[in-house]
């Protein structure tokens, strides 16, 4: 194919990041958009030179796309991935990819059986700093992991409902959970405690927590915690720290720090990770090389499973073990 023709289902804020970076990729062209907000769809279509479609089926059947970006909220994903896979349309599905594991596993199986190129929204994997950390940690025994996602709350009503967003760990802190999996290995068990401390003063209808602590064990034997809050107005943090007897590695936003007996090095990335993610996906579609993608749908499913297990733990007040593959 001369250029990869790309369509979008859902053209909210996260989609706009993708759209702007795709414009910088010579091998990509944006051809189609669909959104339940018709005015927004028309605005985006005009800005990026695409056609608008009223329904998912109309877009998929129009014959104008090779690849599809799904950027709808997690509660609005029913049947979209399956429909794309059935038509042989390559797929990037933004995180989180769903809210119910049985449905996500069915999607994953169909995507794998279809043979389409598939990717997910775990853009931080594409940072050069993350790749340096992965290389450094490859032969290290990680003993403890500390992670944080601290900040404010998105101003969209669906985010405040657990049954629509899954809460902060599923919807935001999933990036830190994914980095833990990517750099330190699979989760063995999780134990979570969630509380509503302030949110109902502002939004009495809210069912999400605004403070959460998750303790976990990895299959390697390492232990860790991830601390989450969406009520912090004056401080933000999105870090993962790895501790071993002879080293310390920290990923804090775009900054990597590595400390051991021979070095204390700090590197700050200048990468646009959305651009790198989209460049890799377009190249994979054009060449047919799935291995250019650093986080496929199956990887996203494994990260989702860990976050949903934490939600289950918080409700059940018990440790939840994740099944070994």
UniProtKB/TrEMBL annotation:
Protein name per the record: Oxidoreductase
InterPro entries: Gfo/Idh/MocA-like_OxRdtase_N, Gfo/Idh/MocA_Oxidoreductase, GFO_IDH_MocA-like_dom, NAD(P)-bd_dom_sf
Residue ranges of every copy of the GFO/IDH/MocA-like oxidoreductase domain listed in the record: 133-244
One Pfam family cited in the UniProt record for this chain: GFO_IDH_MocA_C3
Annotated ranges, domain Gfo/Idh/MocA-like oxidoreductase N-terminal: 4-119
GO MF terms, alphabetically ordered: nucleotide binding
SUPFAM superfamilies given in the database record: Glyceraldehyde-3-phosphate dehydrogenase-like, C-terminal domain, NAD(P)-binding Rossmann-fold domains
């Amino acid at each position: 194919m001369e250029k990869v023709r790309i369509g979008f289902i859902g053209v909210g804020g996260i989609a706009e990041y993708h759209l702007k970076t795709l414009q910088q990729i010579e091998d990509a062209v944006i051809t189609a958009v669909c959104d339940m907000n018709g005015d927004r769809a028309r605005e985006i279509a005009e800005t990026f030179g695409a056609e608008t479609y009223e329904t998912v089926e109309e877009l998929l059947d129009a014959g104008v796309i090779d690849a599809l970006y799904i950027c709808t909220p997690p509660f609005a994903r029913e049947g979209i991935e399956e429909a794309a896979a059935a038509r042989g349309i390559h797929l990037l599905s933004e995180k989180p990819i769903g809210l119910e594991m049985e449905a996500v596993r069915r999607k994953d199986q169909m995507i794998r059986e279809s043979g389409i190129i598939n990717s997910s929204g775990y853009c931080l994997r594409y940072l050069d700093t993350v790749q340096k950390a992965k290389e450094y940690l490859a032969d290290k025994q990680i003993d403890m992991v500390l992670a944080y996602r601290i900040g404010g709350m998105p101003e969209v009503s669906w985010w405040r409902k657990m049954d629509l967003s899954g809460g902060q760990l599923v919807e935001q802190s999933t990036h830190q959970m994914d980095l833990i999996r990517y750099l330190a290995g699979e989760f063995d068990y999780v134990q979570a405690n969630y509380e509503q401390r302030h949110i109902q003063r502002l939004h009495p209808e809210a069912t999400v927590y605004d403070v959460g602590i998750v303790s976990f064990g990895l299959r390697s034997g390492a232990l860790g915690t991830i601390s989450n809050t969406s009520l912090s107005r004056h401080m933000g943090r999105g870090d993962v720290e790895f501790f071993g007897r002879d080293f310390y590695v920290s990923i804090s936003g775009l900054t990597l720090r590595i400390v051991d007996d021979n070095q204390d090095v700090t590197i700050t990335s200048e990468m646009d990770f959305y651009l790198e993610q989209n460049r890799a996906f377009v190249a994979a579609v054009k060449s047919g090389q799935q291995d250019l993608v650093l986080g496929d749908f199956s990887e996203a499913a494994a990260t989702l499973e860990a976050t949903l297990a934490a939600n289950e733990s918080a409700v059940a007040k018990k440790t939840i073990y994740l099944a070994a593959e």
